[in-house]
Amino acid sequence: MQTNVWENLPPNFTILAPMEGVTGIIFRQVIAKAGRPDLFFTEFTNVSSFASEKGRNNALERLEITPSDAPIIAQIWGKNPEHFRILASELEGLGFAGLDINMGCPDRHVNAAGGGAAMIRTPELALDCLKQAKQATTLPVSVKTRLGYTYLDEFREWLPTILHEHPAALTVHLRTRKEMSKVPAHYELIPEITKIRAQISPTTQLIINGDIKNLQDIQNLSAKNPDVDGWMIGRGIFENPYCFTNHQVSHTDLLKLFQLHLDLFDKTSEKAQAKYGHTLSFEPLKHYFKIYINNYDGAKELRARLMECHSTEEVRRLIG
Description:
CATH class of the largest domain: Alpha Beta
Structural class: alpha/beta
Strand content: 15-25%
C-alpha cells in the first residue's frame, strides 16, 4: 500500500514553495546541500502539455527528479479534468510521493488559460479536476491556493469547497490573487482557517504560506498558531538559501554554493543535450545571482558584471 508522505512529516514541517523558473531540478539540489526542507515541490507542470504528443517531452523534463529531492511532490496545473487524470496516473511511476494541484498561481498567462488562481472563480471545474486526479492515483493529492481571487472574504466559501473533497493537504497563501504580494500576509485569519479545516476535514494537513522567511519566523508563527501543521517558504529563499537551518551564513558559504550551482547547471545541461537534444539556456541562470552576491562592499558592481556574462566559465572567472 502506498505510504502517505503527509502522515510521516514532523510537527511544524517545512516546505520550499513551488516557484516557476526557480525550484527546478538544479536549485533543489543546491538547497538540499545548504539545508533541505522536510518536503520539496517541483515547479509547475501543465497537465495539457503532458497529455499532448508535442508537449510531453517538455513536461517530462520539468518532472525530472534526483535522489536528493525525496520526498518530493509534483505540482501540476491546468483546467482539463481528463488531462489531470492522465498525468496523475503516471506520477507514482516517476518517483513522486504525491501531487499538488495549483489553484493559486497569480500569473496572468496561467490565469488567462483558466489555471492557477483562476480556478477560484470556477469551483465546479476545480472540483472536477481534483476528483479526476484523486481517482487516477494512489498517491496523496493536495491543493495549493489563495484566500480568494478578488476579495478577502472569498476564503469563507472557497476553502470549504476544497476541504469537502478531503485533500491530503491544503496550502493557503494568505493573500488574494488581486493582492499578489503587494500587501502583508493576512496572519490574523489563520485561527479562522484552522477552525474551518477542523470542522470540515480534520485529517487534511494545513500549510501556511506568505511572508515566511526562516526558521525563526516559523517558530514565532507556530507558537501563536499551534493547529497549523506545516509552513512554506517562498521568496525568503532569495534572501538566505540556508533559511531552513540555523546556520550563520558567511560570504564564503555563499560562494561555495554558487560554485555548486554552476557545476550542477553544466552537468544538467549535458544530460539535457543527451536526453532531450538541447542544452540549457544560460540567461535564466542570472535570476539566481542575487542570492549569492549581496550585502557586501562591491556586490552590486560584481552583479552588474556577472549579468553581462554569457557562460558559466565567464562567471567562474569573475567570482574567482
